[in-house]
Amino acid sequence: MPPSNSITFLEKPGTRDELMIAEVMRNYFKALTKGDFDLLLSVFWDNAQIDSKALNAQGVVSRDEYGRAIAPELPFFNSVRFFDLLIKVHDERTASVYGFTHYIFRWRPGKTRGRIWKFMKENGIWKIYESSYLPV
């Protein structure tokens, strides 16, 4: 059976902010599964800090550094799973999404990792300003 792509939430997003944040996460997921570089960068604020495991950008990098590192890898995602995502809106401008990712690439086995994505809302738009891995 070939690997499958999926995104699941622990709780169904209900508020307007939760629905908007869930849409950002769906766009992030879709960008990885479809290899859509522009869509991928669009989910992050320009000054975002991303903890990357991309082959060419290990550690915390800027959005642009992440983009340069992940672009050559996008065609090689065999399977992407975002699962057990939990959205927590902290106040009118900040929120977090906690959950897990599992990526399978053509050249290496998959690995499940805990993740935290921190969101900020500006001018009614939610985007990720920080992405990090949970300690193993």
Structural account:
- This protein has 136 residues and is an alpha/beta fold.
- The chain has helices at 16-34, 37-42, 63-70; strands at 6-9, 44-54, 57-62, 77-89, 94-105, 111-122, 125-133.
- The protein has a seven-stranded mixed beta sheet.
- A hairpin with a 2-residue loop joins strand 6 and strand 7.
- The longest helix is centred in the N-terminal third of the chain and has 19 residues, at 16-34.
- The N and C termini lie far apart (29 Å).
- The mean pLDDT is 89.
SSE map:
Layout: E1 6-9, H1 16-34, H2 37-42, E2 44-54, E3 57-62, H3 63-70, E4 77-89, E5 94-105, E6 111-122, E7 125-133
Count of individual beta strands: 7
Q: What spatial form do the alpha-carbon principal axes imply? A: globular
Query: What gap, in angstroms, lies between the N and C termini?
Result: 29 Å
Radius of gyration, taken over Cα atoms and rounded to an integer in Å: 14 Å
Number of helices: 3
Q: Oligomerization state of this entry?
A: single chain
Major β-sheet profile: 7 strands, mixed
Look at the structure and give the mean pLDDT: 89
Low-confidence stretches: none
Based on secondary structure, the structural category is alpha/beta
Q: Strands of the biggest beta sheet: in what spatial order?
A: 1-4-5-6-7-2-3
Secondary-structure element string: EHHEEHEEEE
How much strand content do the residues show? over 45%
**Helical amount among residues, as a percent range?**
10-25%
